[in-house]
Amino acid sequence: MLEIKKTYVTDSKKHPFAVQIDIQTFGKIEQLLEDYALGQYIEENDPSELLSVSEAKKFYKSLGHNNL
């Protein structure tokens, strides 16, 4: 598990209203969220929509990418 070192920001009555984290930790959290979202997107894909290699090449060329 990712250890998050945080600093609480408080108001004049010492009630916390925000949290500060260092930029490296923020970057790790951001990457974890993106990876999770991508994983969810992949899981939601319908396997019946898979293309064969020749179908994929044809589709790719139809997008204007003729490097195949």
Give your account of this protein's structure.
The structure is a single chain. With 68 residues, this protein is an alpha+beta fold. Helix content is 47%, strand content 16%. The chain has helices spanning 23-44, 53-62; strands at residues 6-10, 16-21. A two-stranded antiparallel ribbon has the order 1-2. The radius of gyration is 22 Å and the shape is elongated.
User: Distance between the terminal alpha carbons, to the nearest Å?
Assistant: 42 Å
Helix content: 40-55%
Any low-confidence stretches, pLDDT <50, length ≥5?
none
Can you summarize the main beta sheet?
2 strands, antiparallel
Mean pLDDT: 88
- Summing up helix and strand content along with how strands pair, one would put the structural category as alpha+beta
Give the strand content: 15-25%
Order of helices and strands: EEHH
Shape, per Cα inertia axes: elongated
Number of strands: 2
How many structural domains?
Answer: 1
Describe the strand arrangement of the main beta sheet, using strand numbers.
1-2
Kindly provide the radius of gyration, computed on alpha-carbon positions and rounded to a whole number of angstroms: 22 Å
DSSP summary: helix tally: 2
Per-chain topology:
Layout: E1 6-10, E2 16-21, H1 23-44, H2 53-62
Features:
68 residues, alpha+beta, two-stranded antiparallel ribbon, elongated
